[in-house]
Here is the input.
Amino acid sequence: MQEAIQLLFTPTGLFLILLGTSLGVFVGAIPGLTGTMLIALVLPLTYGANPQYALTLLISIYVGAISGGMVTATLLRMPGTPASIVTTFDGYPMAQKGQPERALGLAVMASFVGGVISWGFLVLLAKPIATLSTKFGPFEYFTLVLMALVLIASIGGKSLSKSLLSGFLGILLSMPGIAAATGQSRLTFGINALNDGFKLLPVLIGLFAINQIFRDIINLKKKSQSKEIETKGLSLELADFRRQVLNMIRSSVIGTWIGLLPGIGANIGSVAAYTVAKNSSKKREKFGTGHDEGIVSAEAANNATIGGALIPLVAMGLPGSVVEAVLLGALVVHGLQPGPRLFGEHPEMVYTIMGAMLLANIAMAMIMGFSMRWLARISRIPSSYLLPVILVFCVIGSFALSNRIFDIWVMVAFGGLGFFLESKKIPLAPFVIGFVLGPIAEDNLSAGLMATNGSWLPIVTRPISIAFLALSLVMLILPRLKKKGLGFNREPLVSE
Here is the structure.
């Protein structure tokens, strides 16, 4: 722990926290750009860096990007990120009433509190969960990954079949290369460059950055019709904090625990917290008209999902969303294995992640407080100015991975694939999670079968394995029951 603290408080560590948080806020405040895309673009730049510094930068970007979306959500009714959709319900009406400074002040306060509370859960729960996971064998890990894939597919969109298809495609495209179990090449079609498979980074850059570039090129002529609102900064009183403290704590807890569930996302954390706040409020009729409680509940919850989502990543090496999948890739690129081994072999990395999240939340509040006037202007930068810069970084990032032109073509191909999937309303989240978790599932299944001489019986005889299988079946069956009228209608719960 001492090593992590010393590193974070060096001039370099503090600079990276400020830089990452600023970049995240900047990108989060621009509709159409996402923190996922930015993290994927920045990751190649960290290859030669100290892994602790690299994770510090990436975690800071994550925190900043989630928070940055509140700017356009409040001022333009255009959520910079999906996590800020609910903020538009009351943030924009309050701004329309001539109180943009107050709306933004409440949002920043709630985001900071939500981030700090979820950080507390991360510190308290990560190690116990990691210790528990050490009791897992290969079959337990296989069924756990299977359950995560099913969960993401079952809640990942309006259509279960499309979500399952997306996850299956992700697993399928993770298979080309040398099979770990047999040492033989598969699905390479005589292409030597495929012996190493599709690298995670070009795939991610293609799915999100190149895909977004394609969409922005098509939509360049479209302009927002929202009324622009000028702001001079933030406005907040101590009385606001006292009135909203219980709302912030409740919403932060909801956001944290929803963040723990794979594939749901910060937008659903904010929806759930907003709904609970509205149902428990004595002024329900004011929600949607520019009400304090609505802004606070939404922003506290969506920032709190960060700490919740980091718990399974750090403790078990399981990414619950696209951003965590990219962070997992960052750890692997730097030769680190997330999960219980990380606590034993590299505890300084665990404490660095925890410390970076806390300091990034502090930096976020400071940046928002001092630069809101300029952030409001940044949010209106035309996409045509940003696209060439983003494209250059995409090419450099993909090529720098292995110095291969092949990876650039992979990036472009997956950009086209992402564009096609989204045009057909097929969610990308199950695809990415399938691509990342598929090899993990295969490796554990192979290890388990080798240990049992090819017997599949332990999957259904070990208590933990059978429990994960049972939960997977329930999650597959439940949506069908709901469609038959045995439950409420589902809404899409994940955003890419």
In short: The chain has one domain: 2-220+231-484. The first helix runs from residue 2 to 8. Residues 2-220+231-484 form one domain. The chain has a mean pLDDT of 78.
